[in-house]
Write a structure and sequence with these properties.
Blueprint (H helix, E strand, L loop, with lengths): L6 E5 L3 H12 L3 E6 L7 H7 L5 E4 L4 H5 L3 E4 L10 H6 L4 E2 L1 H6 L6 E5 L4 H14 L4 E5 L9 H4 L4 E5 L2 H5 L8 E4 L13 H14 L5 E5 L3 H6 L6 E6 L12 E4 L3 E5 L6 E4 L8 H16 L4 H10 L8 E6 L2 E5 L6 H9 L5 E5 L12 H7 E6 L4 H8 L5 E3 L3 H11 L5 E4 L12 H18 L1
Parallel strand pairs: 1-2, 1-4, 2-3, 4-5, 6-8, 6-9, 7-8, 9-10, 10-11, 11-12, 16-20, 17-18, 17-20, 18-19
Antiparallel strand pairs: 12-13, 13-14, 15-16
């Protein structure tokens, strides 16, 4: 696509917006970049774009600027229904995301990973396993690095691994990966999508866009995922982290046999990966590993090197991260657990009484599906943030509930009731922006409070 002379607006100046604005300006477009935050909070964007000729406007998204543009590039957090965008579409202009600007310029196999939970871990694990196997790869997307900044590196690699959110699927219509991965679908982002059904269909779109001679790797244990991928023209490869006897003998598939991970990616050969010495635990991590191993085998990685890579992968921060085992109580940071599916998996993975710290900004989902797990496994529920009232109402009579006004108070309350053998788990089921900069800040504050608690004692 030729952008020279086109009047293009970039809405949202996080990492992807900055990458898009810089790229388009260098391509000769007339670029105006908007962000709703005040100028005082946008130092990084100002410094990043000061020498490329981008007009910057802060403190609001001016509908007049948007509607008069030939094209818009919107960041993942920007709603497609933002005022002015419809006018662009009505005139035949495009409203896309940063990733759309990049994928058409990449001529290497693309692996696209999505799902409500586990996609960052799976994407990182694929990258780690390929690197350990000597296969050149670029890892980018929703994981934190805009792929538009890495196009040259991507075209020198053997494979491009992209973590893709539902927002990016919506705004990257030309993304047609060689391999797609759909890990799971549970309610999330219903403050953005019109319904859970729309959100689920969006996730399934990634598999249906996979090239016909490619592969769609999907979680057959998730009934919704299995239904959503029907109609895909690529070769579908199921995985099952809880068994595999139901999978068709001789077909490409991967499963957990009760002791090890079994991967049959094609050719009639099944490879066994022992879990001994591997730090990733729980059903959710078996899902991540099965998907990652299948991808890597399809890309030609050696099984011995893959097993070696599994053993050296230590997981990611803020995802069931053990902060401290203190006085017989384990403290886990699962701040990335921002939806009910993630919290359910976190709770289910623990075989101990749980003091759960939860709450924040609701994403418009119903928390009640957690009720049975909370009743069964949570001995104390400590609530923080804007959703306290809603969560208290839902879990009243099911759990012993206390509210806290800060993370420090929440940790102190949890520590005061925890007994040896218990677990204190931060898994909020909510976004973080009411009290923290982001989920990482929330997790870091939790870890800091836990370590200070230990020092005090």
């Amino acid at each position: 696509m030729n952008f020279r002379g086109k009047k293009i607006v970039v809405v949202g100046l996080g990492k992807s917006g900055i990458a898009a604005a810089r790229f388009l300006a260098r391509e000769g477009a007339v670029v105006t970049a908007l962000d709703s935050k005040p100028q005082a909070e946008m130092e990084n964007a100002i410094l990043s774009l000061k020498d490329v000729g981008v007009s910057l406007r802060f403190g609001g998204n001016d509908p007049a600027v948007i509607s008069s543009s030939d094209m818009a590039v919107i960041s993942p957090g920007v709603s497609p229904s933002l005022e002015g965008l419809e006018d662009i579409c009505r005139r035949g202009g495009a409203v896309v995301g940063e990733m759309e600007l990049a994928v058409g310029r990449i001529d290497r196999p693309i692996v696209a990973v999505t799902g409500t939970n586990g996609k960052t871990t799976t994407t990182s694990l694929i990258g780690h396993l390929l690197e350990n196997s000597g296969i050149r790869r670029v890892v980018a997307g929703n994981i934190g690095t805009p792929i538009l900044d890495l196009v040259d590196d991507a075209n020198r690699s053997d494979a491009v691994i992209l973590e893709v959110s539902s927002f990016q699927i919506e705004t990257t219509p030309s993304l047609a990966p060689k391999i797609s991965v759909l890990l799971n679908i549970t309610p999330d982002h219903l403050d953005r999508h019109a319904s859970f059904e729309e959100y689920a269909e969006c996730k399934g779109t990634l598999v249906k866009r996979t090239v016909a001679d490619g592969f769609g790797i999907y979680n057959v244990r998730d009934a919704l995922v299995s239904r959503i991928v029907r109609g895909a023209t690529c070769s579908l490869i199921p995985f099952d982290a809880e068994g595999g006897s139901h999978l068709k003998s001789g077909s490409a598939a991967s499963w957990f046999d009760g002791e090890a991970l079994m991967v049959s990616s094609g050719g009639g050969i099944t490879r066994k990966y022992s879990l001994e010495g591997i730090s990733l635990e729980g059903v959710h991590n078996r899902e991540n590993m099965l998907a990652a191993l299948t991808v890597c085998e399809l890309l030609g990685a050696d099984s011995d090197l893959l097993l070696e890579g599994l053993k050296s992968f230590k997981g990611l921060p803020h995802r069931m991260e053990l902060v401290r085992d203190f006085d017989g109580v384990r403290y886990f940071n699962d701040s990335k657990g921002t939806n009910i599916g993630a919290v359910a998996k976190a709770i289910s993975s623990l075989d101990a009484p749980i003091i759960l710290i939860a709450g924040g900004i609701s994403k418009g989902v119903d928390f009640s599906p957690l009720s049975s797990l909370v009743e069964e496994k949570v001995k104390k529920l400590v609530l923080i943030g804007e959703s306290c009232e809603e969560m208290s109402r839902i879990f009243e009579g099911i759990a012993d509930i206390t509210r806290a006004s800060s993370m420090r108070e929440a940790v102190l309350i949890a520590a005061s009731v925890a007994e040896p053998g218990d677990v204190v788990l931060l898994s909020p089921a909510c976004a973080s922006f009411d009290m923290f900069r982001n989920y990482a800040d929330r997790g870091e504050q939790f870890a800091k409070c836990v370590m200070e608690l230990a020092d005090e004692k």
